Amino acid sequence: MTSAGPGRPRKQQPVRPGATARDEILDAAAELFTGQGFANTSTRAVADAVGMRQSSLYHHFGTKDDILGELLKGTVAGGLDFARAVCAAPRPAGAVSAAAALHAVALYDGGLLCSARWNLGILYHLPEARAERFEPFMADRRELRQLYRDLGQRVEEFLPAAGGPGSAPLGELVFRLVESLINLRADGLADNDSASQTADAAVVLAGLSAQLNEVRELSRGLIADYGRG
Amino acid sequence: MTSAGPGRPRKQQPVRPGATARDEILDAAAELFTGQGFANTSTRAVADAVGMRQSSLYHHFGTKDDILGELLKGTVAGGLDFARAVCAAPRPAGAVSAAAALHAVALYDGGLLCSARWNLGILYHLPEARAERFEPFMADRRELRQLYRDLGQRVEEFLPAAGGPGSAPLGELVFRLVESLINLRADGLADNDSASQTADAAVVLAGLSAQLNEVRELSRGLIADYGRG
After folding, report:
1. Which residues on chain A are in Cβ contact (under 8 Å) with B197?
2. Are residues A106 and A170 in the same domain?
3. Are residues A162 and A88 in the same domain?
4. Vertex A107: Cα angle to B193 and B126 (nearest 5)
5. How confident is the model at residue A91 (pLDDT cuts 50, 70, 90)?
6. If you placed Cys at B154, which of A3, B98, B126, B175 could pair as Cys (CB 3.0 to 4.6 Å)?
7. For residue range B174-210, what is the model confidence (pLDDT) as tens digits?
């Protein structure tokens, strides 16, 4: 029998990925929310998909919103940790190393969006996800966006010709392109190259396409230093 | 009394924009679908929001899905018409005029996404909107994406250095950036400059930032020629 957390032991072996019953609930909910819609999924259906009683599910999550909140936070957590680490590292000494930091964050964050088991980002703009109770997720996502902007600004500081009045901040454009990987995936068009192509586009937007190979190499180094295995 | 289409006359003057009762239904549904969610909105609630009996609503739309299908089609219709016209116009003679065509489509299409009364694009990736019955919308959106790709390819043909193996097609990146205006708007961050900044980013992605003013001028000409007032 498998038991984890405060719930009572379940009657069967885990059928879903994850070390704990809680992880299994999250996985089942992610499948149902992305497959048939959040409003159309009951906690009963989630419990059934884990092979658990609904009352056991409530030991782990008080409401369906709590499950969604945790899932949404999970979509930005890995990218946010990495972006924080890159931003806290020694400041880049030139445009190429500044661009490498932005490239690395786009590649790492975008890679997570493309490779996550479920494409939960399609739920970001649900009216239901705008509620106050999802503020922890929204705050993380705002912080991530701001880190992209900060990294973009470091690049722009080295390139007085780039940006300029009336143009969109580089970091904001890159954040938007990375999040659009969610749409690309929903459209069935994402592949193994999508995240790296998106990161490379950040370098082109910075006006540094001639230095692309150099940027890529430094970016690989940052991911080796600050990424999780 | 106002009457239009096959429905019976309504009891009150129109309270929503649109020339016909059908338009009013679409407007009310768009407000409710984007504000409280598609699954959470009943046709009864839509009828109430127009001041119409539910039975009258059914004279215009057989199901809630029919309303959603029509609304989704409306989000791409204007951009698609414009992109078709630009693609059918005489082929550009050089990189700058090719980039102007892509810029114009991004600006026109993005402008419509930013200025539409309701931000319906947030419904694109609803699991519910993936159903077979929304295929007419999906087909239009695929065509629009392909026109972006075609216009991007015309630019790339003039610029052998751009693109290259392993990089994302220019038109695809621009399509993604334009659609990300939907997210920007949902986040409350879109403003009057967002569409033009996005169109300008297409020129930077093409490696033509030095010709930006020239591209913008030609783009204005295309919008004057092929846009709807």
Report:
1. 166-168
2. yes
3. yes
4. 65
5. confident
6. B98
7. 999 999 999 999 999 999 999 999 999 999 999 999 9
Residues A180, B179: C-beta atoms closer than 8 Å: yes
Same-domain pairing of A129 and A214: yes
Pick A101 or A160 by higher pLDDT: A101
Task: Sort out which chain B residues have CB atoms less than 8 A from A34's CB and list them.
Answer: 127
Same domain, B92 and B174: yes
The alpha-carbon gap from B128 to the nearest alpha carbon of chain A, in Å, equals 7
- In this complex, the residue of A35, A177, A193 whose CB is nearest that of residue B176 is A177
List the one residue out of A52, A2, A6, A5 whose CA is nearest residue A25. Answer: A52
The residue behind tokens 């009572």 is A8
Q: A195-221: string of b/e by CB count within 10 Å (b at 16+)?
A: bbbbbbbbbbbbbbbebbeebbebbee
Q: Which residue of A has its CA nearest to B125?
A: A122
Interface pTM, i.e. ipTM: 0.91
Q: Which domain holds residue B34?
A: 1-62
